[in-house]
Amino acid sequence: METASFDFGMIGLGVMGRNLLLNMADHGYHVVGFDKDQAKATSLESFATPGTTVKGVTTLAEMVRQLKRPRKLMMLVPAGPIVDQVINEALPLLEEGDIIIDGGNSHYVDTLKRIKFLEDKKVHFVGMGVSGGEHGARTGPSIMPGGDVAAWRELKPILEAVSAKVNPPQNEPCVAYMGKGAAGHYVKMVHNGIEYAIMQLISEVYDVMKRSLGLTNDEMHEIFKKWNEGEMSSFLVEITSEIFRKKDELTGNLLVDMILDKAGSKGTGKWTSQDAMDLPVPVPTIDTAVSMRDLSVYKDDRVKAASLYKPKIKAITKNKERIIDQLHDSLFAATIICYAQGLAMLHKASSELNMDIPLKDVVRIWRGGCIIRSSLLELFTTAFRRDSSLSNILLHRKTASLVKKRTAALRRTIQLCASARIPAAGLASALSYFDAFCSETLPTNLIQAQRDYFGAHTYQRTDKEGIFHTEW
Ligand code: 6PG
Fold first, then answer.
1. In order along the chain (472 residues), what is the average pLDDT of each group of 10 residues?
2. Under a CB-based contact definition with an 8 Å cutoff, are residues 236 and 328 in contact?
3. Other CB atoms closer than 10 Å to residue 241's CB: what's the count?
4. Whose CA is nearest to atom 11 of ligand 1?
5. From the CA of 310, how far away is ligand 1's center (Å)?
6. Is 160 assigned a catalytic role?
7. Is the C-alpha dihedral spanning 31, 37, 39, 42 positive or negative?
8. Which candidate among 76, 77, 217, 380 keeps its CA 20 to 30 Å from the CA of 301?
9. CATH for 8-177, among 1.10.150.20, 3.40.50.10490, 3.40.50.720, 3.40.50.300?
């Protein structure tokens, strides 16, 4: 008879699931992994650090039997119907008080339904964002759990142990309770929206460097490396610098030049945009990033249009150093504006969807392990610690002073891109958002007039309270 001696069970031994489980084992937990794929289950142990307790099994029942109570199981399976299948298979094997975690990128609406479904069965369901990719899963991801507080208390020690740590020697863990209901998955979704937006901005800066300034990959490697050593230090800037150096094994060319310019996506960016519009809260740079990935996929049309319109990219040959500095400042300002949009969305969603998301903890646990980690998050952490109800990080004085100094550069970059025919929709949307956000008056009075003109939609006045309509 097997004894229930294992601390944690992982369902789905793809690289993410396997690595996170091995990370737990490295921290002294006894772990068991289940995958229907025999090869994945049997090879699990061979990846483990010697001396750790790791076991692979091929049936869910075998795994559940060996877990200590309350059982802690986590799924790392593709978002969608598979999550429900696993829940339905696991449910008859579980008991009151057990905890199932969904660590994938599920849509928060699905998570809410699952919480409700399992609540009736007295099983805790935790929607949890995990960021950091395969490497992060093994060495320390940023972890965003939400939902049931009792379940969070049970999980806290193990999650703190395996999460990324920042600020040695304090080693602050990059995991915290993200709020009620599906807050964990909601926060991860917005994390990904910001991820999409920053990646779009970096790609636009790359485009200027490559097609207009004519820089080589080696030069771009050096520039991004230098940028990563300064105030714009971030994981995405760091890996961008590394990417420019990677050789293609097939051809010996630099790999980045061999990669087709069509970007895939799995949905979290799109959901961020859709859900932002539902709130509503503006996240135009995230919307643009999603659209630009979509546009990239229309390669055949783009090829035809290129031959029809024959765009001539204007080469910039003078003052390259100055323009590179200008690009740095543009990217820095626009990146802050992306965070501002995403964080403003979380601020609104927190109350609107009754999640009580602690923004000071969100930015704190994004400082390490996750894809959008950057030195800026230290500043945002200070800002939200001081004022947890900050509705937009652009209203924080220190952040404002960083942006203020760089908007002139961002403006020049947009001008440069427009005249050089380099598409810069992300950078431009960041600047327009900023200009609109800082504008005491907007031309929306005219839109209100038009709405009232053709549809009697009414308007408010600047000089007195009330709702008005005019026979135009
Ligand atoms: C992370 C990542 C990851 C994410 C993909 C996004 O935080 O580790 O955000 O979870 O799902 O990188 O994938 P797509 O670009 O394919 O949508």
1. 87 96 98 96 95 97 96 96 96 96 97 95 96 96 97 98 96 98 98 98 98 98 98 98 98 98 96 98 98 98 97 94 98 98 98 98 98 98 96 98 98 97 98 98 98 98 98 98
2. no
3. 19
4. 105
5. 35
6. no
7. positive
8. 217
9. 3.40.50.720
